[in-house]
Design goal:
Helix content is 28%, strand content 28%. By secondary structure, it is of the alpha/beta class. The longest helix has 14 residues, at 63-76. The radius of gyration is 17 Å and the shape is globular. The relative contact order is 0.13. This is Class I SAM-dependent methyltransferase. One of its GO terms (molecular function) is methyltransferase activity.
């Protein structure tokens, strides 16, 4: 019997977020789907998706990051247009409404500049998501750490590792779901990391 080497997993899937990999295992991302990586950075989550025939788009505030993602896409999915990858704020996406079947937003929303900016980003992601589409977000929250972090003004907290993050709580997420008339695809899942940060996965159906 032939066995694949365990080391082939990294070569096949790259550094994809394990929580995003879970969505692949559940069949929620398929070849040919239009997918937006919102806050794509240099494309850590994209190599497997590009090779698998997903119609990937990406947006990031960093011009240099977008350049690197374009180079990655030209190597792994040369038929994708370079202008699938653009520089923009998530609060003002340069895409028509109802464009994407899947939107990923990983480790981005806790960098919101205000509560209005946080809500604006979520609402804009929702605008460009197709009815029936999936919004997958992972970001820092206060869930499991309420009262244990240095709170500044409003929902801003100074994190133990240094930076200031905007941290939503479950009540804010529930209120946004009502505003969007969203359906939770699965329960909120929060990982507590060394009592320093809580990273919550929020998966919605439009």
């Amino acid at each position: 019997m032939f066995h694949l080497p365990i080391t082939s997993l990294q070569a096949h899937f790259g550094d994809i977020d394990i929580y995003l990999f879970d969505q692949l295992l559940k069949g929620r991302i398929q070849k040919g789907m239009k997918l937006l990586d919102a806050g794509c950075s240099t494309g850590r989550n994209l190599p497997y998706l590009l090779k698998a025939g997903v119609k990937v788009h990406g947006v990031d505030l960093s011009v240099d990051a977008v350049r690197q993602v374009r180079e990655l896409a030209s190597e792994l999915a040369p038929t994708l247009p370079a202008d699938n990858f653009v520089t923009a704020d998530l609060e003002q996406l340069p895409f028509e409404s109802d464009k994407f079947e899947v939107i990923l937003c990983s480790a981005v929303l806790h960098f919101a500049r205000s509560e209005a900016h946080f809500q604006g980003m979520v609402q804009e992601l929702w605008r460009v998501l197709q009815p029936g589409g999936m919004l997958f977000c992972r970001f820092g929250t206060t869930i499991g750490l309420a009262g244990k972090l240095e709170q500044l003004e409003g929902r801003f907290h100074r994190m133990p590792h240094g930076p200031v993050w905007f941290l939503a709580d479950e009540a804010l997420l529930s209120e946004l779901e009502k505003q969007l008339t969203a359906t939770r695809l699965e329960p909120l899942k929060t990982v507590l990391v060394e009592q320093e940060r809580s990273m919550t996965t929020w998966v919605l159906r439009k």
